[in-house]
Amino acid sequence: MVTLKELTVEELFTSGHRLCAGCGAGIIARMTLKALRRPTIIVNATGCLEVASTIYPYTSWRTPWVHVAFENAAAVASGIEAAIKALKKRGAWNKEVDIIAFAGDGGTFDIGIQALSGALERGHDFLYICYDNEAYMNTGIQRSGATPHGAATTTSPAGTKIPGKPEFKKDFIGICAAHGIEYAATASPAYWNDYIRKVQRGLAVEGPAVIHVFSPCPLGMRHDSDKSIEIARLAVQTRYWPVYEVENGKYKLNIKVPRPKPIEEFLKLQGRFRHLFKPQFQHEIKRIQEWVDENWKRITELCGEA
């Protein structure tokens, strides 16, 4: 359990950025920097969080911060970590520094997965945070490997025959855990205490750690800006977004949901799913509910909670 007294009072991610009202990425960045334990270098892949927080000549980051391409946040974080080790070996540096890489789902699930996989396999010591708004929101709301089944995007549009994206979401944490890393976890900004504890745990790990956090996007998910935290909470309460961690290969369920709400409660607040409530597509809601139930069963069995 994290107490408010443990958090950094100083605002290291400041106001004045151009992120949309209700943007999950800004909330997540601020929470993350509240959990820092010592000087930290931030590596930020191209995406909403990067472009909207560093409008030249201004920045919202009061930490050392590096902008990198969509695909190589993990590679750059690896290089920084290796450089610090080399400086220490030569006696040119004697301070402890943490490294955090931020990237969206596009820069993580798809075009960044190779760099991340290599960094995890090599065992570089940094925390990787994927803020998942479930599409390439920064470049026009295109579908990604994180986009859920049935969501309408500009590259998976809902029409009269096709109900949005036909594929289902990739198991990102399962992929990361398969590398044998010490710590990987999911989180939601609606449960700040759980998220900040996981950031602190990820920073404490000797080696790579990964956090996959749900990031509401009013523009791309098409919901009211004041509904972001409600939607992030419903993602958990409907079991759509199981909150768990994998430590040394052992799964643990962090938020139990004994009486889940129907998936419609999560879907109906978002315009990207509006078409599913038309008569010809309502069977797709049943398919999504079945996927949610099966995924929850799979995760809880791994956690020993079945």
Summarize the structure.
The protein is of the alpha/beta class. 36% of the residues lie in helices and 14% in strands. The protein is globular and about 70 Å long.
Notes on the structure:
This protein is of the alpha/beta class and 306 residues long. The protein is built from eleven helices and eight strands. An eight-stranded mixed sheet has the order 2-1-3-4-6-5-7-8, sandwiched between helices. Strand 5 (183-187), helix 7 and strand 6 form a beta-alpha-beta unit. The longest helix has 21 residues, at 282-302. It is globular, with a radius of gyration of 19 Å. The model has no long low-confidence stretch (mean pLDDT 96).
| Overall outline | globular
Helicity range of the residues? 25-40%
Low-confidence sequence ranges: none
By CATH, the topology is Rossmann fold
Q: What is the total domain count?
A: 1
Distance between the termini: 25 Å
Element pattern in H and E: HEHEHEHHEHEHEHHEEHH
The main sheet orders its strands as: 2-1-3-4-6-5-7-8
| Amount of beta strand | 5-15%
Provide keyphrases for this structure.
8 strands, Rossmann fold, eight-stranded mixed β-sheet, alpha/beta, 11 helices
Topology:
Layout: H1 24-34, E1 40-45, H2 48-53, E2 65-68, H3 73-89, E3 98-104, H4 106-110, H5 113-122, E4 127-132, H6 172-177, E5 183-187, H7 192-204, E6 209-214, H8 218-222, H9 228-237, E7 244-247, E8 250-253, H10 263-267, H11 282-302
Parallel strand pairs: 1-2, 1-3, 3-4, 4-6, 5-6
Antiparallel strand pairs: 5-7, 7-8
